[in-house]
Design brief:
This protein has 16 helices and 14 strands. Strands 1, 2, 3, 4, 5, 6, 7 and 8 form an eight-stranded parallel beta sheet that branches. The chain has a six-stranded parallel beta sheet with strand order 11-10-9-12-13-14, sandwiched between helices. The longest helix is centred in the C-terminal third of the chain and has 27 residues. The chain is globular, with a radius of gyration of 21 Å. It starts with a strand and ends with a helix. The relative contact order is 0.12.
């Protein structure tokens, strides 16, 4: 039986991380049938409702600290540090350790406070379980992720070091991400494939007596927004237009809902509702805080169309055959849409205004059945690409060569 360890994610209060985990479990089922055990490691505690729909164990590595992890890499680990000790034992017995976080070496993300440390210490702190696996001779791989933009020497150096000393195989979820890594001087071959969350299963259901338009809101795009007209104003205007022009309901779908964040997707949604009500419109907010990731995907899959500014809402919609319009800020959205033949349905955060947004939505609504057919027709190619990269990542092709 193959023993697979996954790590790098926090499953609580978000939709993206659980989506990746569900996709990984589906991949392992395709590759190994039932002859595998998957254990996910999460630093810190796990909310039971976050993993209630998962068919594998998420092990909590409690009381974790970077200092104790670095000491363990040097062979010093306290017998009282039971959670970390058990996690490291699991890694030593594994066939593969898969790091799952979806964005790496990106200049747009805030650098860590300890960036002045030497590269090998930085990497050990950034990818602790993968680094440990590599040192112990366990296959260490980086699941499909977006890399870059990388212009800083700091991130370029980390990317080169990670590709050489941490991961036996790396996968980019966009060709542009792959090229970004190669331009940094990474010499190792890097695979390119769509996000593994495209494999996550779903069930369609009846949400209401009328068709439902899902709008996936984002606090991230509020921060990235560069257009003259405010994001909240644009989305509220779109909701009002849908109210007045179509026999459809509107639901806002928050993805990141951590109550400790100063401004999360629920806050954005509430701001949109407040603006919409002041204009005489109406919409509801999906209570994603009290849903499993499967529930959220099922709701997205059951919408008539989706307008999204969250990446994994886009993945959920497309992989379920739902016509999609994206308001995005990164090349990850471009390439995801391209996989499904939907290149024309992207609005940049720098070019969006109420008029353009409403015009594009009207075109999507009018042609939604053609878009649905295109998306469904492209899905087998997407699935095959994810599985092919997954087999290479897991070393399956290499194993068969040696049989």
């Amino acid at each position: 039986m193959k023993k697979i360890i996954t790590c790098g994610l926090k499953v609580d209060y978000n939709f993206g991380s659980p989506s990746i985990l569900h996709g990984m479990f589906e991949l392992l089922q395709v590759v190994y049938g039932n002859d595998f055990e998957m254990i996910n490691l999460q630093i810190g505690s796990v909310l039971p409702e976050s993993v209630a729909d998962m068919s594998f164990l998420t092990y909590e590595v409690k009381d974790y600290s970077a200092k104790r992890m670095l000491m363990s890499l040097c062979g010093f680990i306290s017998k009282y540090d039971k959670y970390l000790r058990h996690a490291l034992r699991l890694i030593k017995k594994a066939d593969s350790v898969i790091e799952l976080f979806g964005i790496c070496f990106c200049d747009d993300l805030a650098p860590p406070q300890w960036r002045l440390l030497r590269s090998h210490l930085l990497i050990a702190l950034r990818f602790p379980f993968s680094y440990y696996a590599k040192r112990k001779g366990v296959r260490s791989v980086k699941n499909a992720a977006s890399y870059g933009p990388i212009s800083s020497k700091y991130n370029q150096k980390l990317a080169r070091f990670a590709s050489k000393h941490v991961f036996d195989c790396m996968v980019a979820r966009e060709e542009k991400s792959r090229q970004v890594m190669l331009s940094c001087g990474v010499r190792k071959s890097i695979l390119s494939a769509p996000d593994i969350a495209n494999l996550m299963r779903y069930k369609k259901m009846k949400l209401a007596d009328r068709p439902v338009v899902g709008i996936s809101t984002s606090h991230q795009i509020v921060r990235q927004w560069r257009s003259a007209e405010d994001y909240v104003v644009c989305i509220a205007a779109l909701c009002l237009h849908i109210n007045n022009s179509f026999d459809a309901e509107v639901i806002l779908i928050p993805n990141e809902t951590d109550p400790t964040d100063l401004y999360n997707d629920i806050d954005v949604s509430e701001d949109i509702i407040e603006k919409l009500v002041s204009l005489g419109g109406h919409a509801s907010i999906l209570n994603t805080s009290n849903m499993t990731s499967s529930d959220i995907k099922n709701h997205i899959a059951s919408c008539e169309v989706v307008v999204a500014s969250r990446y994994h809402s886009c993945v959920a919609a497309l992989s379920a055959g739902v016509p999609l319009m994206v308001v995005g800020w990164h090349y990850k959205y471009e390439e995801l849409l391209h996989w499904y033949g939907q290149d024309d349905w992207l609005l940049s955060e720098s070019d969006c205004n109420t008029s353009i947004l409403i015009d594009m939505f009207d075109k999507l609504w009018q042609t939604r059945e053609e878009r649905r057919a295109e998306i469904v027709a492209h899905y087998p190619e997407v699935r095959d690409a994810v599985i092919a990269a997954g087999k290479s990542m897991l070393g399956v092709y290499k194993d068969r060569k040696n049989e």
